[in-house]
Design goal:
The protein is globular and about 75 Å long. It has a 7-stranded mixed sheet, sandwiched between helices. Strands 11-10-9-12-13-21 form a 6-stranded mixed sheet, sandwiched between helices. Strands 7-8-22 form a 3-stranded antiparallel sheet. The model has no long low-confidence stretch (mean pLDDT 96). The chain contains 15 helices and 22 strands. Helix content is 40%, strand content 21%.
Amino acid sequence: MSTVAGIAVSPDHWIGGRRVASGERFEDRSPIDERLLAEVARAGEAEIDMAVAAAAEAFPAWAALGPAGRGPYLRRLADLIDANVHRLATVECLDMAMLERSLRARVISRGARNYRSYADLAEAYEERAWHSNTTDNRVVRMPAGPAAVITPWNAPFMLSTWKTAPALAAGCTVVLKPAEWSPLSCSILADLTAEAGFPPGVFNVVQGIGEEAGAALVSHPRVRRVSFTGSPETGRLIGRAAAANIVPFTAELGGKGPLLVFADADIEAAAAKAAGQYDDAGQVCLAGTRLLVEESIRDDFLERFHRHTDAHVLGDPRDDRTTVSPLIHRDHLARVEGFVERARENGDRIVRGGAQPDIGGLFYEPTLVEPRSNESEIVQREVFGPVLTFQTFASEEEGIALANSTPYGLSAIVYTGARERAERVGRAVRAGTVWVNTFLVRDLTAPFGGMGISGVGREGGEYALDFMSDLKMLQIQEGTTG
């Protein structure tokens, strides 16, 4: 057992309702000061096979409970999450360096909302029923089987609940593999499932390196669903592995979201929201990282943007004054630095930032780059750090064309004062979610996912429950009696 800020956290796997150690381990260090938090069990094929076997064994009884029988487990888990917000937020802040006040105020509690919402949705499902061709017809949901869930290192607790909630509500059992850079809050989640009375094997957590544990999990022949969030490069590998076993696969694969600002917008609000994209050190897949601003308001927008950006405070994410936290890992810091250095070498103009601040650690300055060309790497590839690009457009058509000019399509933000333009541009921009004059407003029943290389499939609401189910067509000849 490891102790993180006085909180006991098991570094071992959770398989079949018990803790399981591994002969090999890996280090988990805090991004705040690179201090060792735990030496975590490192799964290989043997542990993955054990976890999938446990999930497969538990599946028939869990599926047979039906939505009404599974709902109380999910609601008890939600209650336990709410009761442990402080504990979870403390550990996740140290493990991932997300702002602790955000974790306590909204992020951890969103996990509780996920379980309650999916319990409600599953119970409220009404089978489609109709009569045709002399038969009575119904569409029946059948739980698919053991589900492999692989989550990223940013917001690991919330994203794990976002994926496991619909799987469990639909009647699937789960093997969850959190990212190796921030695994600890998911270990606590496993403890909470046990406290909520989940039967052994329904919820399993295996920790390890993606190329080892993740690869073994998604290619396992007994897994019947795969849900992944991460990079397009890894998504392609997981998609091939799932396809080999004819297993449905859903993936959210990052973004390069445009933030379009038209001259008729509330420029102050738009500039403040643009500067807000540096929150959590820019490690947010939904962030509007490409600022696209109408030419006529260029100078006005930039003056306001710089003022709001100047107000950011880089520091310890446990301090309520901090607005920009450190990056997750030294390797990731090097990746962000590499993007900016290549942009500089390419002739792109570094408008602000572009270096590590003198406070040291894993921090990187909020950076704005004005690219030499729309084809610059800094425009076309996801950086996933506190780095934004700035471009202008002369017309609505040009703004839409720039917004749609990358291979990504996860999200977009539009600022305009005209409802007609909001509708027109919102429909024209290719993205799974388009926010107009707002950002990060989420309805849990809405579809979520990306276009292009930002992903395949949709999560959220009934879409996620359908994905975690096999849909059966049941037809009974009219007049059948007895």
